[in-house]
Design goal:
The protein has 531 residues and is mainly β. It has three helices and 21 strands. The longest helix has 7 residues. The protein is globular and about 65 Å long.
């Protein structure tokens, strides 16, 4: 098999909703946009990074644009899948450094196995599946929740910070059938994780489970136009158990910017349960016009979170409800026999409200947030053995979060602009190598509460995150990939490595901003099979 056939162009990928179970090594966004394990109304607060701007023109098929690949409608799969492809890989991700938020772990190591594959079944059916198993090590983690920087203000944390070991596994699959001009499809997914300390004076046992499902229908109006409707559901259940064995600990239940009261755990235990339930409904359209393939969709999502101590009859639940609208668009067009351009964008607005169990009729914390993601990708086959790829990304975040009890608010707006280039070279029919470099610039502005007017818990565990979000930063990422078509048929062995760094642009920043940089690296190797 020629490696030239495996040199795969990178175009703009549909920007999938944030999936906290995934890492960049799990594949590009367009391979995950259909996942039933994506949040329905959530905009997690993430650190800026140059990694999304780094092209990889070697390891994946040309990203697809369509009702399935962009909007995530499972009913479109039999219309948009005609090839057979699979990837199996083993890899490790590591992330450490002082430039982090208080609830981020000091260091995390993620050893993982993953696989993804798809194929058609006859002329009317198609299926896709994904599996992932990870062994995660977290050093100095203070958060007892899987997602400490979600939209919800409610977070359980403790001061012991003992190292955690986590087993995280997920399984997802989607199948679609075509009945003439009608396409029907369903998708199911399940994620489970178990987290615990090892030989710690204050043991922690954390468990979580996430089931999800989606179903959709697509109608081919004409050879150049298809329309679709699909819905999805995802639930999440998480339990925290912390108890003292050889040392005391202090637990804080953060509830926004209001000063959290500590609870000392000396000779007893602390436990809390969190449940989320979310639903979303989307309409979409796709077609061909002016030599371009395009897709557009609109989605409405809702999510409700409840937290309470387990083991009580009719407990008072602290709630967080969120309502989101998402609009997405992707297009792809050839500019010539050797050049292709693609554009994609996604805009989400979200409003949320929190109510404490002892104040069920009062909104104690509220937010109005938005995230806009866009990407433009240009691929050029410069010579028969050289391919060049450039990628431009933009991300805008607006986050207005108001604490009614503390009578303070934060109102931050930020832009992240990234640009990356990569080149692939194949000196012979069975070998190829690719390398790339990306840079990103993060700029922020707005207002945050004055830490000097707040309590010690806020200054220690909340204010540094807001100060970091309000601080300009810059980052870079670089990657190298190799591919060897050494397997019979159309199979190949491949390996890749990636490094990234993030740090403040101004060494003299806001008070409480951490010093230093945050660095990450990834090493991965696997097998690719195509037909």
């Amino acid at each position: 098999m020629s490696a030239r056939w495996l040199l795969l162009a990178v175009f703009a990928a549909p920007l999938a909703a944030q999936d906290v179970a995934s890492t960049p090594g799990d594949g590009p966004e367009w391979t995950r946009s259909w996942s039933p394990l994506l949040w329905t109304a959530e905009l997690p607060r993430i650190l800026p990074s140059a990694a999304p701007s780094l092209p990889n023109p070697l390891l994946w098929p040309s990203p697809r644009v369509g009702l399935f690949w962009t909007a995530g409608n499972p009913g479109a799969l039999p219309f948009e899948l005609a090839d057979t492809f699979s990837v199996f890989a083993v890899g490790v991700d590591r992330d450490d450094g002082a430039y982090r938020r208080p609830l981020d772990p000091g260091r995390s190591t993620n050893d993982r196995l993953r696989g993804v594959g798809w194929r058609p079944f006859g002329e009317r059916g198609a299926a896709l599946g994904r599996v992932r198993v990870a062994d995660v090590s977290l050093e100095r983690p203070l958060s007892d929740f899987d997602l400490p920087y979600s939209g919800s203000p409610y977070v359980v944390m403790d001061t012991a910070g003992s190292a955690l070991g986590r087993t995280d596994a997920s399984l997802e699959g989607v199948a679609g059938w075509r009945l003439g001009a009608l396409g029907l499809g369903v998708a199911f997914g399940y994620r489970a994780q178990q987290t615990r300390t090892e030989a710690a004076p204050v043991p922690r046992v954390l468990s979580a489970a996430d089931p999800g499902a989606s179903a959709g229908a697509v109608w081919r109006v004409s050879p150049r136009l298809r329309v679709g409707l699909h819905g999805r559901w995802r639930a999440h259940a998480e339990r925290v158990l912390l108890y003292s064995v050889a040392a005391p600990s202090r637990v804080y239940w953060l509830q926004g910017y209001f000063e959290a009261r500590p609870q000392d755990v000396a000779n007893g235990f602390y436990q809390r349960r969190m449940e989320r339930d979310g639903r979303a409904l989307a309409v979409s359209a796709a077609g061909d016009a002016a030599g371009a393939t395009w897709t557009a969709f609109v989605e409405r999502g809702k999510q409700e979170e409840r937290q309470h101590p387990p083991g009580q009859n009719n407990p008072q639940s602290d709630t967080w409800t969120s309502d989101a609208w998402t609009v997405g668009l992707a297009a792809r067009r050839a500019l010539g026999p050797r050049t292709e351009l693609a554009l994609s964008g996604r805009y989400t607005t979200l409003s949320g409200a929190a109510r404490r169990g002892d104040l069920p009729d009062t909104v104690t914390f509220a937010s109005d947030e938005s995230v806009f993601d866009a990407a433009a990708d240009l691929s050029l086959q410069a010579r028969p053995f050289v391919q060049l790829v450039a990628r431009l990304t933009l991300r805008h975040e607006g986050r207005d979060r108001r604490d009614q009890l503390a009578q303070v608010q934060s109102d931050l707006a930020s832009w992240t602009t990234g640009f990356g280039v990569a080149a692939a070279y194949h000196p012979g029919p069975a070998f190829a190598v690719a390398g790339g470099l990306a840079v990103a610039v993060y700029g922020a502005g707005g207002g945050i509460p004055d830490p000097t007017d707040m309590g010690i818990a806020y200054r220690t565990y909340v204010a540094p995150e807001l100060s970091l979000a309000a601080t300009d930063a810059h980052g870079w990422a670089t990657g190298l990939s190799v591919l060897w078509a050494a397997l019979p048929g159309r199979g190949a062995l491949w390996a890749r490595m990636q490094r990234a760094s993030l740090g403040p642009s101004d060494p003299i920043g806001l008070p409480l901003v951490p010093d230093g940089h945050r660095r990450s690296w990834t090493v991965e190797a696997g097998v690719m099979l195509r037909k």
